[in-house]
């Protein structure tokens, strides 16, 4: 967060040639297409035309019109879809200038086409809008592009072995002045150049302090969502509504900029009429990292009774972007004048959050401290390759609060929650006429079982086995050059791991099980089962599997940066900063927290270790390897003979002693990982003096002495804020408590880690877990993964089976594995372990 700088873009202080407020804006181009339908359809006063009637717009190799059979609700644009089995194009003749392109998706099953598994890309002549996109449920995506030719071509390109679909689409002119570069820059240096060439994707459009605003109350048919679910501390603000007092001052914002319903409500700092109170209110938005964002703030001082009562500061990701903002002075001394400001993040976001805060001015004294925000739009900007999507975003947002809106928001989708949040209203609008029950999104998306993620629970075909995740052996051979030895990137107990690329270019990690291993078969099944039920941005996900010719092959997306372990020691990779390490811990803690609190049964991972935490190209952590995981904490209580499994050095001593498996065993192992992260050394290193061999014991001694800083990674010396280290140390200490009951839950660990991060790099007011708390099934697309990367990455962990009598007979499950500690024989390690396990 702190890393990204925000650059003051411009105040749009004068909108010269503005369309008048009188009777709304009439778009020059207004194409509304009801795809796949033979008839026109009127939705909230707008006519969506059949794309058969508009067929001159479309070129497609063959024509497949799909109608949902069992959706017997009132027809709407989501009842039909057009399916594309080859590259297809909609062509529109357009006036030059900025246009909205809105794509509506609501997958259902039609004949053999299960739209929830369709994977495809959508682009214009100039920009990639969606790439390798899958819609798991109903959603709308909104883009705005400045078209510079007289024709707009929207190309739908199915990914390899898949198809594309769309339920409805809109191409509508945007008023020229809505998003235009106004060169008047207030104060700060650094204008953003080239906004006119910039494609934007609306990710949030929020009405602070007010209800959802729907298209019929917005002259440009937009949706504005309420802000409460983004507020970090809801009780720090109060809601103010004075819609009738809004004034559109000529030359400033207009009704097109944002409607009265948006300007006329705000969230105001709730200072409780205490003249000395001082705090910020903060909104938190999840976004896709790797892109720049354009932020538009809407203000209207409906809280003051007179001029000069309101002076406040505006921050984005803790950076002050405007100090002592005095709205009336910008608006020629008009109170309650509508006003807006635009910002662009200076560089691509590193984190996946944007936090916006307001707080009273500290330099200008007023009777009561106040600060307001009326509306906010957040738009993703295309990257330098003109893409708005790289096909790697595993949808993010997730908070439980959002789930509450399910009725409106209709469901979660690959990479689209954001858009959903912003546009849920749209959907609703249409949905209301239907039955409005689309909260469903399934968690199962692969073989074994499926209640597919379609939004048509009433459709009778959704339970067909989801064989689309079964990948033919031939395709896997092609991807790995017939399991070419040079492609091996890891060897584990399960078998070898190959790097490969599917036909469509997706990089994958292919884990090929050793068919002889019975153990392997069980783990193969567990892994598929687990990963098919649990989808989360911090869990690696499976692309598919293959069980042809008694093969046991799992295909995951490739994790660019390998294991966490390889970044800590045993390789030449650059060292990670403390902040990066904390973020990685936070990410993996989220993944585990999600597993432990899943809505059905908690899942215990059982093999938490740094080699099972993988990092994507942005160093985002994902927990991998579910081969040993178990549902339900009681399994091992009833089956005490079950072998104790896990990895040495990480094994919970209580589990070891009593063979009672609970989530707290994962917490223990995670504590060990935290020490590993801090000290950057193997968890067991028999080459060291005896008291240092076992990392957990050794580091714990220093923690208890209050001298943890003595044993931290050299490269972190002097770089960790003392409080942050203290918090971290205390948290590990609790995780490593002898008894499970004394250990915190993963949720607490997560909270503490976030707090430690804030102590390191103060960000915003509060360290609440704003993200994945008991969230569930993320959706998403393609993360990747696999474990046991070790070969090239400095040695791997060895998984062992400990027989259930707890007496410490170890059987090496994995003889092929490289030693964890190079140059030390496994037997040495084992004997050390047997001793140290005696605790
Ligand atoms: C559908 O709308 C188009 C464009 O307005 C019109 O030309 C056509 O006649 C309409 N078709 C029907 C069946 O109403
Ligand atoms: C669109 O691009 C053209 C050519 O670059 C430019 O002249 C025009 O001002 C742009 N329009 C908007 C609304 O940005
Ligand atoms: C939205 O517009 C309708 C009329 O179109 C009006 O009755 C309703 O009050 C408006 N809603 C709000 C929140 O202003
Ligand atoms: C508000 O947030 C900013 C940025 O994080 C911080 O610098 C400032 O001290 C905060 N103000 C208050 C009153 O907490
Ligand atoms: C977005 O794409 C345009 C070309 O279509 C390019 O000129 C511009 O630099 C891109 N924006 C960014 C931030 O790279």
The ligands found in this model are: 2-acetamido-2-deoxy-beta-D-glucopyranose
- Major beta sheet summary: 12 strands, mixed
CATH superfamily of the largest domain: Transferase(Phosphotransferase) domain 1
What is the percent of helical residues? 10-25%
Second-tier CATH architecture of the largest domain: Orthogonal Bundle
Poorly predicted segments: 1-23, 183-190, 394-468, 632-642, 764-839
Rg from alpha-carbon coordinates:
28 Å
Number of strands: 41
Mean pLDDT: 74
So what's the overall shape?
flat
As for the CATH topology of the largest domain, it is Transferase(Phosphotransferase), domain 1
Structural class: alpha+beta
Q: How far from one another are the termini?
A: 42 Å
Taken as a percent bin, the fraction of beta residues is 15-25%
Can you tell me the number of structural domains? 4
- Helices, by number, come to 16
The top-level CATH class of the largest domain is Mainly Alpha
Protein name: Protein kinase domain-containing protein
Biased composition (Low complexity): 449-464
Binding site for ATP: 511
Keywords: ATP-binding, Glycoprotein, Kinase, Membrane, Nucleotide-binding, Serine/threonine-protein kinase, Signal, Transferase, Transmembrane, Transmembrane helix
């Amino acid at each position: 967060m702190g890393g990204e700088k925000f650059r003051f873009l411009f105040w749009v202080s004068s909108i010269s040639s503005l369309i008048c407020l009188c009777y709304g804006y009439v778009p020059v181009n207004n194409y509304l297409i009801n795809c796949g339908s033979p008839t026109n359809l009127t939705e909230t006063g707008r006519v969506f035309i059949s794309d058969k009637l508009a067929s001159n717009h479309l070129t497609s190799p063959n024509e497949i019109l799909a109608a949902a059979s069992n959706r017997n609700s009132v027809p709407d644009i989501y009842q039909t879809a057009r399916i594309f089995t080859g590259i297809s194009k909609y062509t529109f003749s357009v006036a030059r200038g900025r246009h909205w392109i809105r794509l509506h998706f609501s997958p259902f099953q039609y004949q053999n086409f299960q739209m929830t598994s369709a994977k495809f890309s959508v682009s214009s002549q100039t920009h990639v809008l969606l790439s390798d996109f899958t819609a798991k449920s109903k959603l709308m995506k909104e883009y705005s592009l400045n078209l510079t030719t007289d024709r707009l071509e929207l190309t739908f390109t199915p990914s390899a072995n898949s198809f594309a679909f769309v339920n409805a689409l809109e191409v509508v002119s945007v008023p020229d002045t809505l998003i235009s570069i106004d060169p008047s820059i207030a104060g700060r240096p650094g204008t953003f150049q080239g906004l006119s060439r910039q494609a934007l994707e609306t990710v949030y459009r929020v009405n602070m302090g007010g209800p959802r605003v729907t298209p019929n109350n917005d002259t440009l048919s937009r949706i504005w969502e309420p802000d409460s679910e983004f507020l970090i501390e809801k009780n720090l603000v109060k809601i103010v509504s004075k819609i009738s007092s809004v004034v559109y001052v000529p030359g400033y914002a207009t009704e097109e900029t944002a409607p009265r319903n948006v300007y006329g409500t705000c969230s105001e700092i709730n200072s409780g009429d205490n003249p000395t109170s001082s705090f910020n209110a903060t909104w938190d938005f999840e976004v896709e990292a790797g892109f720049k964002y354009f932020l538009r703030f809407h203000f209207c001082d409906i809280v003051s009774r007179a001029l000069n009562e309101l002076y406040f500061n505006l921050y984005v990701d803790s950076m002050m972007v405007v100090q002592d903002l005095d709205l009336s002075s910008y608006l020629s001394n008009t109170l309650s004048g509508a006003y807006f400001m635009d910002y662009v993040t200076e560089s691509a976001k590193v984190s996946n959050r944007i936090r916006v805060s307001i707080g009273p001015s500290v330099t200008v004294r007023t009777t009561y401290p106040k600060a307001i925000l009326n509306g906010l739009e957040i738009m993703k900007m295309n990257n330098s390759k003109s893409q708005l999507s790289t096909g790697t975003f595993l949808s993010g947002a997730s908070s439980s609060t959002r789930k509450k809106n399910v009725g409106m928001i209709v469901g979660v989708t690959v990479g689209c929650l954001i858009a959903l949040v912003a546009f849920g209203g749209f959907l609703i609008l249409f949905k209301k006429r239907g039955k409005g029950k689309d909260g469903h999104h399934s968690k199962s998306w692969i073989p074994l079982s499926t209640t597919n993620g379609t939004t048509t629970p009433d459709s009778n075909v959704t339970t067909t086995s989801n064989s689309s995740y079964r990948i033919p052996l031939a395709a896997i051979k092609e991807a790995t050059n017939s399991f070419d030895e040079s492609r091996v990137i890891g060897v584990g107990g399960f078998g070898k791991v190959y790097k490969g690329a599917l036909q469509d270019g997706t990089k994958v990690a292919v884990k090929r099980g050793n068919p002889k291993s019975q153990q392997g078969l069980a783990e193969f099944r567990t892994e598929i089962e687990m990963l098919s039920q649990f989808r989360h941005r911090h869990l690696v996900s499976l692309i598919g599997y293959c069980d042809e010719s008694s093969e046991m092959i799992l295909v995951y997306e490739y994790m660019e940066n390998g294991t966490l372990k390889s970044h800590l020691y045993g390789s030449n990779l650059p060292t990670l900063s403390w902040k990066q390490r904390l973020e990685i811990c936070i990410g993996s803690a989220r993944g585990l927290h999600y597993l432990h609190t899943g809505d059905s049964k908690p899942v215990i991972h059982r093999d938490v270790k740094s080699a099972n935490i993988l990092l994507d190209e942005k160093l985002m952590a994902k927990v991998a390897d579910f081969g040993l995981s178990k549902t339900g904490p009681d399994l091992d209580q009833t089956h005490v003979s079950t072998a104790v499994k896990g990895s040495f050095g990480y094994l919970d001593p209580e589990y070891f002693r009593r063979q009672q498996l609970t989530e707290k065993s994962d917490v223990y192992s995670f504590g060990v990982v935290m020490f590993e992260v801090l000290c950057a050394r193997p968890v067991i290193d028999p080459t060291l003096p005896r008291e240092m061999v076992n990392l957990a014991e050794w580091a714990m001694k220093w923690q208890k002495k209050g001298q943890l800083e003595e044993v931290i990674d050299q490269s972190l010396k002097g770089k960790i804020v003392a409080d942050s280290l203290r918090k971290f140390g205390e948290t590990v200490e609790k995780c490593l408590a002898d008894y499970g009951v004394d250990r915190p839950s993963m949720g607490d660990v997560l909270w503490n880690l976030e707090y430690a991060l804030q102590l390191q790099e103060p960000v915003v007011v509060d360290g609440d877990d704003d993200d994945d708390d008991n969230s569930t099934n993320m959706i998403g697309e393609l993360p990747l993964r696999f474990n046991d990367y070790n070969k090239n990455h400095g040695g791997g962990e060895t998984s062992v089976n400990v027989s259930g009598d707890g007496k410490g007979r170890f059987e090496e499950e994995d003889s092929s594995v490289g030693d964890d500690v190079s140059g030390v024989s496994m037997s040495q390690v084992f004997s050390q372990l047997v001793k140290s396990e005696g605790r």
